[in-house]
Design a protein that fits this description.
Distance between the termini: 72 Å
Strand content: 15-25%
Low-confidence stretches: none
CATH architecture: 4-Layer Sandwich
Number of helices: 5
Helix content: 10-25%
Order of helices and strands: HEEHEHEHEEEEEHEEE
CATH topology: Purple Acid Phosphatase, chain A, domain 2
Number of strands: 12
Structural class: alpha/beta
Largest sheet: 6 strands, mixed
Number of domains: 1
Radius of gyration: 20 Å
Oligomer: single chain
Strand order of the largest sheet: 1-12-2-3-4-5
Mean pLDDT: 92
């Protein structure tokens, strides 16, 4: 009888733990936001401190609307960024849910000293989003890059290059015809899908920034195969699934894969908290 009671207690606790994890995955973690910070080069007296904030994969939909962006936008603006970069996937499925007016109003609240830039993701093409994505981002104050270069000149005269590639799944990414028109002191390559950075490894960029992967969305400790299975449904992000990668034998020195804000396929995250990334660059 005692053994039966113990089994019942263990079973009840197991059910409670599993139920709690499921509740957390669907109702709590997707609505959190964390800040990840990186210093990319050495601080020196003659260098200007450039703060770049990256956000990615908002995946706006019925259960994650413009109202849920308030926390994200607050986190971005708290960093007092010089540049804000959005690496694609504004809506989850534009044909099912869209709210352009409120999204524009929300994204207009993002502040950046030198400007805000964006690139195309695969979701920015599908479901009819291709017809309106450019207008939405431009109305929100973003410069949208499609196989284009964008430069800023800092107060100390140093020049920073941003090259934004088109989406690799539904677009046509190519290097701009006149890549690096000007000499630059720091260079960033932007590609929505991280695995698509590989064809450009011989181009001399200090870092590439990507998104798309969501880090798999589900990352259960001690069960890595769950995360691996989640990544298999996300094309062109299985090799570089999230975080910082450093390369010793390539012209591109580093790749950072932002694990995004929103969700897709299922509206859940576990062990992959939505992130805003802050890069400290000294140029």
């Amino acid at each position: 009888m005692k053994i039966l009671k113990r089994i019942l207690i263990v079973f009840t606790l197991l059910i409670l733990v599993i139920g709690g994890c499921i509740y957390y995955a669907f109702k709590i973690e997707p609505y959190r936001v964390t800040l990840n910070e990186f210093t990319l080069n050495e601080e020196k007296p003659d260098r200007e401190h450039l703060k770049i904030v990256q956000i990615s994969d908002l995946h706006i939909k019925a259960d994650f609307t413009y109202k849920n962006l308030d926390k994200v936008i607050k986190k971005v603006n708290e960093q007092n960024p010089d540049i804000v970069i959005f690496t694609g996937d504004l809506y989850d499925n534009y044909a099912i849910y869209r709210d352009d007016e409120n999204i524009v109003t929300a994204l207009q609240k993002i502040e950046a000293g030198y400007g805000k830039i964006a690139i195309w993701g695969n979701r920015d093409y599908g479901g009819g989003a291709e017809r309106t994505y450019a207008a939405v981002m431009e109305d929100a104050g973003f410069t949208l890059l499609k196989n284009e270069n964008w430069y800023i000149t800092l107060n100390n005269g140093k020049r920073v290059l941003f090259t934004g590639l088109d989406d690799a799944l539904l677009g046509h990414p190519v290097m701009p015809d006149e890549t690096k028109i000007y000499d630059s002191d720091y260079e960033l390559l932007l590609s929505h899908e991280p695995d698509n950075v590989e064809p450009y490894m011989n181009y001399d960029y200090d870092i590439a920034l990507s998104g798309h992967s969501h880090g798999g969305q589900i990352n259960i400790p001690f069960l890595p195969f769950v995360n691996e299975m989640a990544l298999t449904v996300t094309a062109l992000s299985s090799k570089y699934s999230g975080g910082m990668y450093t390369f010793d034998d390539n012209a591109i020195k580093q790749l950072y894969v932002n694990t995004g804000i929103g969700t897709t396929h299922i509206s859940a995250r576990f062990g992959v908290v939505p992130e805003v990334t802050l890069f400290h660059i000294y140029v």
